Amino acid sequence: MEDIVMLGVEGIKKTILHGGTREKPKFITGTKVTFHFRTQLCNDDRTVIDDSKKAGMPMEMVIGNMFKLDVWETLLMSMHIGEVAEFWCDVIHTGLYPIVAKSLRRIAVGKDPVDWHIHTCGMANMFAYHSLGYDDLDELQKEPQPLNFVMELLKVQQPSEYDRESWALNDKERVKAVPVLHGQGNKLFKQGRYEDATLKYKEAIMCIKNVQTKEKAWEAPWLKLEKMGNMLTLNYCQCLLRMEEYYEVIEHTSDIINQHPGAMKAFYLRGKAHMEVWNEAEAKEDFMRVLDLDPGMKKTVKKELAVLKMRMEVKNEEDRLKYKGMFTKIAREEESLELEIPEQTSPESPEEAPLEETAEEQTNSMQTTLKQITLAQSGPEQTPSASSDHVILEHNTFLSTQNVTPEQTTREAATPEQLNAVQILLEQSTSEETSPHHATPEPTCPEQADQDPLSSDSEQTTPAQMTPEYSTPANET
Question: CATH no. for residue 24?
Answer without folding.
Answer: 3.10.50.40
